[in-house]
Amino acid sequence: MNSVFENIYLRRSVRDYKPNDVPDDIIKELIKAGTYAPFSPYPTRDQPRRFVVIKNREMIGGALRASEKIVARHEREF
Hints:
Order of helices and strands: HHH
Distance between the termini: 41 Å
Number of helices: 3
Shape: extended
Largest sheet: none
Structural class: mainly alpha
Helix content: 40-55%
């Protein structure tokens, strides 16, 4: 089977993470891979990509709570 299809078909969601930090070289490789992903050509999205890496666990929790509030607010609008 083609490795691309294999990765798509065998994809799974992970909800429980190890406490280990992800090494910087892997983070850099993931960001590099992200720059190869398709990007919307629409003028409203004609902005440079920005990747944010947060390693501080307290900041991660704060970012999660903030994003949950934003999603909840937008869900009420629709």
